[in-house]
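Feature request, filed as a ticket because there's no other form

It would be nice if the structure record came with a short human-readable summary line next to the tokens. Right now we just get the raw output. Example of a typical job, pasted below so the devs can see what we mean:
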Amino acid sequence: MYRRRGWPVVLHEGPVVLRPLRLRDAAALRETRVRNERWLRPWEPTYPDMPLRTGGLAPYAGMIQAIRAEARQGLSMPWSITYDGVFVGQLTVGSIVWGSARSAQVGYWIDSAHAGRGITPTAVALAVDHAFFAVGLHRIEANVRPENRASRRVVAKLGFRDEGVRRRQLHIDGAWRDHICYAVTAEEVPQGMLRRWRDSVPFPEAGSGPPLGPEGPNGGRGEHDRARQRPWTG
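Raw output as currently delivered:
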């Protein structure tokens, strides 16, 4: 079936690996999210059925089962992000629309203990390239809160376009929050987003005034998170 083409699949670039999210990830997912509660809360959509702080595995297992069911229908591609074999976060290409649109949204988060190593932009580039050139999607959006400067830096590094603000788009941390819509189409990365990321010009040294600021769960450690020619080094 066309909608299942390119899934499931494992993608890798150096020590950064995207592998399909699986039920056995529930324990690592719970541990990582609980430990990163303060780090994630300002940016995470409100999920009443899966709070950031919970003592049981059931909500996480249920979430994974639901996401995997969507993947079997061709509506999402949910990956675990690992670095040197360690679970460090999650990335999903979701809200997939077929027909004449062939569009999707990408969402991601990373463990604060592994931020600032270029893992997130590498993972996003891997996922976007796969979505465009293996699955056949045409447009991918990333919707980011204006305050989440680290995540905005990720999409800026990778060449997503700023398409404006979507007012009160998602309920996050107790209120309806605005998001900036960033987007990219397959024609804009003919050689692939990963190649663009590999060849990107490094940001200035810390302290010399990078364009965006403080650290966040989706992109690294702000002004200390410089783009590098090889995202897994340093």
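Something like this underneath would help us a lot:
The mean pLDDT is 81.
The first helix runs from residue 26 to 35.
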